[in-house]
Structure formats: structure tokens, C-alpha cells
């Protein structure tokens, strides 16, 4: 049953719980696999590879996830995990094009784009899943008002955009960001970055959610324009601008990008600051599905389920500092300082995750008037 509800609850990242092993058998890899998983794993091992397209997983995460996935299902050291990373809009465009052409290179699509997943599934674009782990996430996915359409589309993870700044740059020592008004203060003139919402489903859905919840984003854009921002799309180049003091403040980035750079250069932990918005944090659930017709159909189904498992969640949460919907999940210690305690924040969703896409043209048009 598809779900696209308003976000109405908080506090769903809590203590870890054990996964039931009833009806499970131990694979040679040491993982507890069901009979269905073992059958898929045998076929996936013969396929020898899987191709994931997504906008989020860094090279470090992908390099860790591939071996972990292969080990979990006993697929062998020669199994190839291919991670293709593009923007949210570009991942959708790529998969949509393959569906229309009936020629496939992609096995699994992971992105926050409820409207696309809804429309694609109506066309029968995704394989039917028989997930062992969806039961551990569905309660919190629905409680958090996120879209899913099981047994074809699941929602394994989420992230939220936060303000990020470099306190060591000129004029930034006393800057604190607690609201969208703070993010467009004139003291930040020459220091800001505007997110290019025309290229991103998640930026656009964030803006729509804020508007639905009473934030005058057109007034925010007007004030942001007065700060003479640079327009940039991807979070990685934006965080590099912040680090280099080229543009020391970004109103919409990911705490995980700070985390990843601190891992490379620990001294950054003292100067890179992460804020939150009192108006609310828009939680952006990412959907995942196995593309019907993909070159590795059995591996695709296994990978979708792996993303829902604790072992899979540990990889992407530790790698990206994002949120798992697993009930009782505790994030790895390294990522924990970069994750919000969601029980202490106002969380926002959308009235209609699927219908929101009809608003994209108008919302993006208002942004374009100011910045393009």
C-alpha cells in the first residue's frame, strides 16, 4: 500500500533491537539468511555484479558497502558493486530514460523522489520484493509520514538540509544560525551560497514543505539575493567553498559533508559549525526499488534488502551521517555527533509527497526570477 502522509511524529531514532532469527539459516558468510535470501544469493553470485544509481553515497561509502554486501550474502570476492552518483534530478532522468527505452544498465534506484516512484510503479517499472527487513522499518517510515509502496518501493534512509558555516573565516566568528531569517542576514553579504533548486528534487521538496508550514520562501529568496550569493547545486563543492572561505556559509548542506571532511582533516571539527532551523527540519526519505529489466535482477533485490538491514544501515550511516528508519537503531559512534536528536526538533514533511511534484514549476520559477 502506498503511503504519502504528513509528517506527524518525532523521536524515531532510538536504541538498537535484535533481529529475530526465526526461520533463518546460517550462510557460509556467517550471515543469518532466510531460505529466500539464500536462493537469491545463489543467483546473484552467478550474475556477478550489481549497479546502484543514487545522489548520496560517497566513494568511501561505496568502497565499504560493496565488500560488506558481498560478504553478507556470500557472493564472493569477485562480485562487483558499481555505484553511480548523480544529482537527484539526474538519477531520475537516467532511470526514466531507461524505462522508456526498455534498455537497462541500472539495477537499483535510490533517491528521494516520491512522485517519480509512484508514476514508475504505475507503469510496472519495478520488481516485486520479498523483503526480510522491511518489517523493521515500515512502522517508523509511516510514523514519519514518508512515502513507500511496498512490495515495490521501500524507504531505507533519510537526510535533512542544515546550515553549515566556517567560523574561522573573516566576519564569521560571531555568526549563529537558528532560523531562515538568520541565514539571510545582511552580515553574510558576499559569504552565501544559494542552492540551485532547479536541479534537485530534494531542495525543491524542502522549499515546498517550508511554504506549506508557513515560511515565506519568496521573501527569503529576496533577502538572500541581497547577500550576493553564488549559485551551486551539489553539496560537495559547496562544502569546499565553505572550508576555503570562498563562501563560508551554506544555508542548505548536509551534516555528513562536514563529517566526511573532518575525517580527512580533524582540525576542521573546531571551525566548521552545523546549525538547525527553528521553523523545522524537512526530513527527506529516500526511496529504493529494483528496476525491472535490470541486468542483475537477483542481486538488485538483495541490495534493496541489504539497505534495510542493520549491517547495511551501519555502512551508510557511518559513511554519510544520515538516518536509518530501522526501529531501535543506534548509529555508529563515529557518526553520532553529526546527527540531530530528532526528538528535540520540529520535523516537517509534505501534505502529499506525490502531488508535490505538480508544484515544482511554480516554486522553481520564483527562485529563477531571483537567481537566473
Description:
It contains 13 helices and 17 strands. By secondary structure, it is an alpha/beta fold. Helix 2 (59-73) packs antiparallel against helix 12. The longest helix is centred in the first third of the chain and has 15 residues, at 59-73. It starts with a strand and ends with a helix.
Describe the structure using short key phrases.
alpha/beta; D-Maltodextrin-Binding Protein, domain 2; 2 domains; six-stranded mixed beta sheet; three-stranded antiparallel beta sheet; 13 helices; disordered N terminus
Task: Give the structure's gist in a few sentences.
The chain is built from 13 helices and 17 strands. It is α/β, with parallel strands linked by helices and 372 residues long.
Amino acid at each position: 500500500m502506498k503511503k504519502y502522509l504528513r509528517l506527524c511524529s518525532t523521536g524515531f531514532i532510538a536504541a538498537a533491537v535484535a533481529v529475530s532469527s526465526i526461520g533463518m539459516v546460517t550462510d557460509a558468510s556467517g550471515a543469518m539468511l532466510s531460505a529466500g535470501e539464500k536462493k537469491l544469493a545463489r543467483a546473484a553470485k552467478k550474475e556477478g555484479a550489481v549497479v546502484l544509481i543514487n545522489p548520496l553515497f560517497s566513494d568511501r561509502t561505496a568502497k565499504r558497502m560493496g565488500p560488506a554486501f558481498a560478504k553478507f550474502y556470500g557472493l564472493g570476492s569477485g562480485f562487483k558493486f558499481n555505484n553511480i552518483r548523480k544529482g537527484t534530478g539526474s538519477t531520475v532522468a537516467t532511470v526514466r530514460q531507461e524505462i522508456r527505452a526498455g534498455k537497462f544498465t541500472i539495477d537499483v534506484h535510490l533517491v528521494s523522489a516520491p512522485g517519480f516512484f509512484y508514476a514508475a510503479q504505475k507503469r510496472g517499472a519495478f520488481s516485486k520484493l520479498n523483503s526480510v527487513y522491511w518489517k523493521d522499518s515500515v512502522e517508523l517510515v509511516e510514523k514519519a509520514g514518508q512515502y513507500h509502496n511496498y512490495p515495490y518501493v521501500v524507504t531505507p534512509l533519510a537526510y535533512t538540509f542544515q546550515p553549515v558555516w566556517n567560523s574561522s573565516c573573516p566576519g564569521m566568528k560571531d555568526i549563529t544560525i537558528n532560523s531562515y531569517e538568520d541565514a539571510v542576514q545582511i552580515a553574510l553579504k558576499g559569504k552565501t551560497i544559494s542552492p540551485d533548486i532547479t536541479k534537485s528534487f530534494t531542495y525543491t521538496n524542502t522549499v515546498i514543505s517550508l511554504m506549506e508550514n508557513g515560511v515565506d520562501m519568496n521573501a527569503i529568496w529576496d533577502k538572500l539575493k541581497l547577500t550576493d550569493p553564488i549559485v551551486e547545486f551539489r553539496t560537495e563543492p559547496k562544502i569546499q567553498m565553505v572550508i576555503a572561505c570562498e563562501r563560508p556559509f551554506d544555508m542548505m548542506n548536509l551534516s555528513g559533508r562536514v563529517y566526511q571532511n573532518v575525517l580527512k582533516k580533524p582540525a576542521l571539527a573546531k571551525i566548521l559549525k552545523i546549525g538547525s532551523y527553528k521553523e523545522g527540519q524537512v526530513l527527506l526519505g529516500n526511496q529504493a526499488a529494483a528496476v525491472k529489466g535490470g541486468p542483475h535482477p537477483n542481486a538488485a533485490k538483495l541490495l534493496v534488502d541489504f539497505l534495510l538491514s542493520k549491517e547495511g544501515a551501519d555502512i551508510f550511516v557511518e559513511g554519510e551521517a544520515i538516518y536509518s528508519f530501522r526501529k531501535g537503531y543506534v548509529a555508529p559512534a563515529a557518526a553520532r555527533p553529526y546527527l540531530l536528536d530528532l526528538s528535540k526538533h520540529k520535523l516537517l514533511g509534505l501534505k502529499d509527497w506525490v502531488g508535490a511534484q505538480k508544484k515544482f514549476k511554480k516554486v522553481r520559477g520564483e527562485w529563477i526570477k531571483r537567481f537566473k
